[in-house]
Structure formats: structure tokens, C-alpha cells
Amino acid sequence: MNADPVPVDLSGRRILITGGARGLGAAMAQACVAAGARVALTDILHEAGAQVAQDLNAVRADSAFYLPMDLADPDSVAQGVKQAAGALGGLDGLVNNGAITNSGGKPMEEIDVGVWDRVMDVNVRGTWLATVAARPWLKASGRGRVVNLASDTAIWGAPRLMAYVASKGAVMAMTHAMARELGEDAIVVNAIAPGLTLVEATEYVPQARHEYYRSGRAISRAQVPEDVVGPVLFLLSDAAGYVTGQVLPVNGGFVMK
């Protein structure tokens, strides 16, 4: 992990990042620690998650914790958030990054109902339940921040990805509703909608789709995790205290909103 430092100060912030064992989650955890925060990482990839936390603690002692959490299991979500808050001594931020795809490459009529339901359980219900569980600690902090990870596929309507696209469209809609409901607790809620990013989870994506993205971007190059962490850190910071209910595409201009 070699993310460049970013000029955002998160000193003293306590951030929970779901899906933090690899890819965007790991990159965001590294960037948060570099900006002065302490982080709790949750995932079902236990060995990888523990390694990320170990690497971060080697850079700055007591800066990261790994905790198991299965976003498809409501009890696991509630327990994981509680343990994260306990390990960090509270929560100032929640990054709902954990998600699965599972239905990539299939037309809508070929998607298995069980696969559809699991994508919704993890990506939609998991985001909702993690936010519900974190709300008391975010309220108590007085500067609560929630950043939901959506996807630009839900903006431009990527084909042969229906379950994932639908789930990320729901995440964008929930972001608006969460901002209304959590605003009374001085918690701001926003979403990032990244484009196709070079991480482990996108290794299965055909090269033609990668080229389609690259050629359609205003900034014509591959998107890497470091392109996403800066906007996430901004939304976790004091600078974003009056920004809420927004969905920010981060995709080099592939879609503009």
C-alpha cells in the first residue's frame, strides 16, 4: 500500500471502514491513518484484514484494528460496529465500503434469485444496518460523518450487472434519506460513486470494459484506488460539515452530474 499523503487533517478521528481488507477499503484505511485518524477495519477476509491492520500499526502504533463482520448477517453487523466503537473509544466516521458484485456478465434474465438477494443483503441492507448501529456513537461525537460507497454504474446504467447496479442505486437513494434523518443528530451523510477502479475485485472484468471506461473519461487513464481516497477523506473532515445528502461521481469524467 503506497497511497500518497493528502492534505486533510483527521487527527483524533475514529473511523470504521467496512470491507477494509483489500482494494478501496484498504487504501482508504491507509489514507485515514496517514491523515491522523485511527481506524477499525471489518471484513469477512480475516487473514487479509488482519494483515492490513498489522501493516498500519507498523507505521503508527495503535492506529488500526481488524474486526470480523459479515454484512449479510444482521447480528454480525451490530456486534462488529459495537466492537469497533469499543476498540476506538467511539466513532466519528463510518465508511460503508463493503459490497459484492456476484452477477457480473449475466443478462438480467439469467441472474439467480439467490444471488440477487445476497447482493441486496450485503450492499443495501448491510449499509443500512451498519449506519443504524453506528448512529448513537456518531451522534455522541458531535461531528459524525457517513460516507457510502455507491457506483457510477447506477448513474449511467451499466448493462449485464443488474443486481449490483440496482443495489448501488439504492445506496444513492438511501444516502438522501439518511441525510434527512441523521441531520437532526448533526451527522452528515454523503456518497462517493467511483468508476471502474483497478482493484482485486475488478480483475474479472473483461479488458474491453476497462478500455470502454478509459476511452470515455475526460481524464483518459486507468482509475486507481488513490483517485478515490482524497474525496472520501474530504467528506470525513471538518471541511465537509455542511455538505450532506450528496452523491459525488469520482470517475475521471466518465459520467458527470
Automatic annotation (TrEMBL):
<protein>
    <submittedName>
        <fullName>SDR family oxidoreductase</fullName>
    </submittedName>
</protein>
<dbReference type="InterPro" id="IPR020904">
    <property type="entry name" value="Sc_DH/Rdtase_CS"/>
</dbReference>
<comment type="similarity">
    <text>Belongs to the short-chain dehydrogenases/reductases (SDR) family.</text>
</comment>
<dbReference type="InterPro" id="IPR002347">
    <property type="entry name" value="SDR_fam"/>
</dbReference>
<dbReference type="GO" id="GO:0016491">
    <property type="term" value="F:oxidoreductase activity"/>
</dbReference>
<dbReference type="Pfam" id="PF13561">
    <property type="entry name" value="adh_short_C2"/>
</dbReference>
<dbReference type="InterPro" id="IPR036291">
    <property type="entry name" value="NAD(P)-bd_dom_sf"/>
</dbReference>
<keyword id="KW-0560">Oxidoreductase</keyword>
